């Protein structure tokens, strides 16, 4: 039997809201050490979770061998519990091994600033507060081109964390990471666009 209880149910809502335009079907991997989801480039779960209030406690239950999962929303402010049952899907997906890599440049900045830049494709503005500063650690210069549509989708996770870390390297996909307090993180990986000039040289 599986039972997960999330006192901060709004975090699950925000995570699923952040990925719903990118992912249509996905497997949740549950173990004694945690709860994870890995998917490749929306869903009924995100729609159902909109029924939950931001202060609701969310419990996820599934019996061994069952083909359904139950989501239970408990409202601490009201004496109210709502249950939703959802049929599980058998999704044949390969778990991707993502190796730890050294990146040539790492950018740490406020999530709100990353959202603003992605939305307007403008230049990074200077900040007056240390927590609002953009910090760049660079081993060597990196010049990459990415599909702005995906970067804009990644910014939907900004409500999960005040800071975003963007790791760049000419040989690797960009990693856009939002830390979720002590609970974990959400990471997006995006391969850069290959310029036509580079293709001609090959």
Automatic annotation (TrEMBL):
<dbReference type="GO" id="GO:0043626">
    <property type="term" value="C:PCNA complex"/>
</dbReference>
<dbReference type="GO" id="GO:0019985">
    <property type="term" value="P:translesion synthesis"/>
</dbReference>
<feature type="domain" description="Proliferating cell nuclear antigen PCNA C-terminal">
    <location>
        <begin position="97"/>
        <end position="119"/>
    </location>
</feature>
<dbReference type="InterPro" id="IPR022649">
    <property type="entry name" value="Pr_cel_nuc_antig_C"/>
</dbReference>
<comment type="function">
    <text>This protein is an auxiliary protein of DNA polymerase delta and is involved in the control of eukaryotic DNA replication by increasing the polymerase's processivity during elongation of the leading strand.</text>
</comment>
<dbReference type="Pfam" id="PF02747">
    <property type="entry name" value="PCNA_C"/>
</dbReference>
<dbReference type="GO" id="GO:0006275">
    <property type="term" value="P:regulation of DNA replication"/>
</dbReference>
<keyword id="KW-0238">DNA-binding</keyword>
<dbReference type="GO" id="GO:0030337">
    <property type="term" value="F:DNA polymerase processivity factor activity"/>
</dbReference>
<dbReference type="Pfam" id="PF00705">
    <property type="entry name" value="PCNA_N"/>
</dbReference>
<keyword id="KW-0539">Nucleus</keyword>
<dbReference type="InterPro" id="IPR000730">
    <property type="entry name" value="Pr_cel_nuc_antig"/>
</dbReference>
<dbReference type="GO" id="GO:0003677">
    <property type="term" value="F:DNA binding"/>
</dbReference>
<dbReference type="InterPro" id="IPR022648">
    <property type="entry name" value="Pr_cel_nuc_antig_N"/>
</dbReference>
<keyword id="KW-0235">DNA replication</keyword>
<protein>
    <recommendedName>
        <fullName>DNA sliding clamp PCNA</fullName>
    </recommendedName>
</protein>
<feature type="domain" description="Proliferating cell nuclear antigen PCNA C-terminal">
    <location>
        <begin position="125"/>
        <end position="193"/>
    </location>
</feature>
<feature type="domain" description="Proliferating cell nuclear antigen PCNA N-terminal">
    <location>
        <begin position="1"/>
        <end position="48"/>
    </location>
</feature>
<dbReference type="GO" id="GO:0006298">
    <property type="term" value="P:mismatch repair"/>
</dbReference>
<dbReference type="GO" id="GO:0006272">
    <property type="term" value="P:leading strand elongation"/>
</dbReference>
<dbReference type="InterPro" id="IPR046938">
    <property type="entry name" value="DNA_clamp_sf"/>
</dbReference>
<comment type="similarity">
    <text>Belongs to the PCNA family.</text>
</comment>
């Amino acid at each position: 039997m599986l039972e997960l209880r999330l006192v901060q149910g709004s975090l699950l809502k925000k995570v699923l809201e952040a990925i719903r335009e990118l992912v249509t079907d996905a497997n949740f991997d549950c173990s004694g050490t945690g709860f994870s989801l890995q998917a490749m480039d929306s869903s009924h779960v995100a729609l159902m979770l909109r029924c939950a209030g931001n202060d609701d406690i969310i419990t996820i239950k599934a019996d061994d061998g069952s083909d359904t999962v139950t989501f239970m929303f408990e409202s601490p402010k009201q004496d109210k519990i709502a249950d939703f049952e959802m049929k599980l899907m058998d999704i044949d997906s390969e778990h991707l091994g993502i190796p730890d890599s050294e990146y040539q440049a790492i950018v740490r900045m406020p999530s709100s600033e990353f959202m603003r830049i992605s939305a307007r494709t403008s230049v990074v503005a200077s900040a007056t507060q240390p927590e609002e500063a953009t910090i760049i650690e660079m081993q060597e210069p990196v010049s990459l081109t990415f599909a702005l549509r995906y970067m804009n989708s990644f910014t939907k996770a900004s409500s999960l964390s005040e800071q975003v870390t963007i790791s760049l390297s000419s040989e690797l996909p960009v990693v856009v990471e939002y830390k979720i307090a002590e609970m974990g993180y959400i990471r997006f990986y995006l391969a850069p666009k290959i310029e036509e000039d580079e293709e001609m040289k090959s």
